[in-house]
Design a protein that fits this description.
elongated; mainly alpha; 12 helices
Length: about 240
């Protein structure tokens, strides 16, 4: 007869693990002796080694009792099922590692390659990181709203950025975020912007959006999507 500490040392586990196995019904909990200590037998040691071996092999604790109690055929089937589940977990972990490996690419983990290229182009133009993050988050939401249309939208946006007039307006709008709402440059910027959109028609604006709720969320609810100057600019463009 041995104590719980001696049993733990023998099997290479902690006493806390043994108590947990008792709670899960995997290892019977012996009665206490006259001194108040629980005493374990050789059978307990053998059962504990089996439990530890199965747990180390990746068998979920919830399945260990069934595996231990199974006959030869049932045991073979149970092990095969557990092995299949482990393969699925390994594949999921591999995909997770692939995603983590892409973290060095920053935005490319969350958006399409075309959108990521667009964001890189914005950085090259000197667009603020605040505006780039705003665009990135908008594209993440729009991919959910209508993934089939994202290629059309991003292709049009990248084409627009090759227009010197649009590009200049974009950069000035980015800079205007930090202006005072009373800045005298705002009315002129609103007029030039209104004039540009009057002369240019968006090919994508008439395309249906698969998820209008998400589309509205992308347009209205992003952090940093407004400032006092931008609010004033938007009002001036409506006047």
């Amino acid at each position: 007869m041995i104590t719980i500490g001696q049993l733990a040392d023998y099997a290479g586990v902690t006493t806390k693990a043994i108590r947990h196995y008792h709670e899960r019904g995997l290892l019977p909990e012996p009665d206490r002796d006259s001194s108040g200590y629980r005493r374990y037998t050789a059978k307990d040691a053998i059962d504990l080694v089996k439990i530890r071996t199965l747990a180390n092999a990746g068998v979920p604790l919830a399945r260990i009792k069934d595996v231990l109690d199974a006959g030869p055929d049932a045991l073979t089937a149970a092990i095969a099922e557990i092995d299949h589940n482990l393969q699925d977990r390994i594949e999921q972990l591999r995909r997770t590692r692939d995603q983590l490996a892409q973290l060095h690419g920053g935005d490319r983990l969350f958006v399409t390659p075309e959108v990521a290229d667009h964001l890189d182009e914005l950085r090259e133009l000197g667009v603020s990181e605040r505006q780039i993050h705003l665009e990135r988050d908008g594209w993440i939401l729009m991919q959910t709203a209508s993934p089939e249309d994202v290629r059309v939208w991003i292709a049009e946006r990248r084409e627009l950025m090759t227009d010197p007039e649009f590009r200049a307006l974009y950069l000035e709008h980015d800079a205007a975020y930090d202006w005072s709402p009373d800045d005298p440059r705002l009315p002129a910027l609103a007029e030039r912007t209104r004039d540009w959109f009057t002369r240019h028609h968006s090919r994508s604006e008439t395309r249906p959006v698969h998820n209008p709720t998400i589309a509205r969320l992308a347009a209205q609810s992003q952090p940093g999507a407004s400032s006092p100057a931008w609010d004033r600019l938007g009002q001036l463009m409506k006047d």
